[in-house]
């Protein structure tokens, strides 16, 4: 494996959901910097046919239910030609965790993630404004219950604690003033919905489509003092002040490092545990301010940096369930067209601990080593091995043919290396490689004379063995 191919594999696992060996070679031919620009600019919608997808994965916008929303997101991860856009949607869904139990509608949650996909690599300031106007977030954190003279602090508190600055950088009074600034930011049809609840007849004429509304008569227009500044602030003014804080730049930078570079502790630990790489955080903070809070510019800084390209950053992240399932299915060539089986595969993500649009709390999912326990590890290994060990899958057949494309025989060592290359130019530890070679030695050299059926079986079995290793769970 060349250095260029190894680095490209690393890039595509972190800025996407992995890639086949053929795709990696195409990216290497184009060059690293050009591939980075493609990742940053190609729309995540490319390769997706919405009307056909909706036919198989309805969002139940006319009634209650998650329905096909997780499958809808999984299909996009598998088939998009702009994988970074889907990855950034997943990233912000993990940070601005909004869940089904209170929103009770798949459509508005998909709309929120579509907003992350479209605007998640633009200005952080603009993203926070859109988040504050998002009906799913308003319902999730009760801003529809935030009124002039009777504030609800839920959104103001989480905006500061989990979405922008982190604990220790604001006061309880700042939370109250933030909540006052967001009074009147609500959902247009909230009154109608509550009336229907009181009548014990939810949505008798079909589900009402949520939309944002600003109610001036319910907004506290008085003077406020927030983070040391005074004025008759509204929500956008508060967000402007938040975005000017160095604490915000550091908080966003650490999130980006955690998601794209190496696992960090859960967010509640951040006030007490320093960053894994303080110099990397400093670089990202400078990019935040130098580029007017632009997230895409920060990601460009990150994935072109020495700390990202370093061998020390390789395989330092445990794949999240969505990353694992989407990555496996991109390799196997399954589910290239919408079909009911997509939702079945989305259920497997839930079995591994990540039910999309249904995070466990406003903190989102605790990631890293917390993805893996005695139950989820079995599910992760079985899922990857089952799909990559199935020669009926078109991508598996194609990869096996590539492994067998040269000569008429393979040593056990070459069999192992060929399979690692085809599964995305991945590297494994010396112990894992020794175990794989030892397994291959049991049947000796792979040979074929015209009929490749047995040789193909050997290759596919090795794919299955690689998928079952601890190394495959990392990226």
Structural notes for this entry:
By secondary structure, the protein is mainly α. It folds into two domains: 42-313, no CATH class; 394-473, no CATH class. 55% of the residues lie in helices and 3% in strands. It contains 25 helices and six strands. It has helices at residues 3-14, 21-30, 32-41, 50-56, 69-79, 83-95, 100-103, 106-119, 124-132, 135-140, 154-161, 172-181, 190-198, 235-243, 246-260, 278-290, 295-303, 306-309, 321-332, 341-351, 374-388, 394-403, 412-422, 430-441, 453-467; strands at residues 185-187, 212-214, 224-226, 229-231, 409-410, 446-447. It has a two-stranded antiparallel ribbon. Strands 3-4 form a two-stranded antiparallel sheet. A two-stranded antiparallel sheet has the order 5-6. The radius of gyration is 24 Å and the shape is elongated. The chain starts with a helix and ends in an 8-residue tail after the last helix. The relative contact order is 0.12. Residues 192-202 have low confidence and may be disordered.
């Amino acid at each position: 494996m060349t250095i260029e191919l190894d680095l490209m594999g690393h890039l595509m696992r972190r800025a996407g959901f992995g890639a086949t060996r053929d795709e990696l070679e195409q990216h290497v031919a184009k060059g690293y910097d050009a591939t980075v620009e493609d990742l940053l600019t190609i729309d995540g919608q490319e390769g997706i046919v919405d009307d056909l997808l909706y036919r198989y994965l309805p969002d139940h916008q006319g009634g209650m239910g998650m329905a096909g929303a997780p499958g809808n997101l999984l299909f996009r991860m598998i088939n998009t030609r702009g994988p970074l856009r889907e990855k950034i949607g997943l990233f912000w869904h993990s940070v601005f965790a909004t869940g089904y139990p209170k929103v009770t509608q798949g459509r508005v949650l998909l709309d929120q993630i579509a907003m992350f996909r479209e605007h998640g690599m633009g200005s952080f300031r603009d993203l926070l404004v859109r988040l504050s106007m998002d009906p799913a977030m308003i319902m999730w954190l009760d801003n529809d219950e935030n009124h002039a003279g009777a504030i609800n602090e839920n959104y103001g508190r989480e905006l500061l604690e989990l979405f922008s600055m982190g604990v220790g950088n604001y006061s309880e009074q700042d939370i109250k003033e933030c909540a006052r600034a967001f009074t009147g930011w609500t959902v247009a049809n909230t009154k109608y919905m509550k009336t229907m609840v009181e009548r014990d007849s939810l949505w008798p004429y079909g589900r009402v489509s949520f939309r944002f509304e600003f109610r001036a008569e319910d907004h506290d227009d008085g003077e406020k003092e927030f983070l040391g500044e005074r004025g008759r602030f509204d929500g956008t003014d508060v967000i402007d002040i938040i975005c000017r804080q160095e604490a915000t730049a550091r908080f966003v930078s650490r999130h980006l490092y955690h998601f794209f570079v190496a696992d960090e502790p859960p967010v509640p630990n951040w006030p007490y545990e320093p960053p894994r790489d303080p110099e990397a955080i400093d670089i990202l903070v400078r990019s935040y301010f130098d580029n007017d809070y632009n997230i895409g510019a920060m990601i460009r800084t990150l994935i072109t940096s020495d700390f990202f390209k370093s061998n020390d950053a390789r395989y330092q992240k445990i794949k999240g369930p969505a990353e694992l399932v989407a990555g496996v299915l991109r390799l196997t060539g399954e589910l290239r067209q919408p079909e009911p089986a997509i939702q079945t595969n989305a259920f497997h993500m839930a079995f591994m601990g990540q039910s999309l649009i249904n995070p466990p709390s406003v903190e989102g999912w605790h990631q890293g080593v917390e993805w893996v326990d005695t139950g989820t590890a079995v599910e992760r290994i079985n899922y990857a091995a089952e799909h990559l060990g199935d020669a009926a899958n078109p991508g598996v057949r194609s990869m096996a043919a590539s492994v067998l494309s040269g000569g008429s025989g393979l040593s056990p060592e070459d069999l192992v290396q060929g399979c690692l290359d085809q599964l995305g130019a991945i590297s494994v530890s010396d112990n894992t490689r020794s175990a794989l070679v030892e397994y291959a030695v049991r049947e000796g050299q792979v040979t074929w004379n015209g009929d490749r059926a047995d040789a193909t079986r050997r290759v596919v079995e090795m794919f299955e063995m690689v998928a079952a290793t601890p190394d495959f769970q990392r990226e």
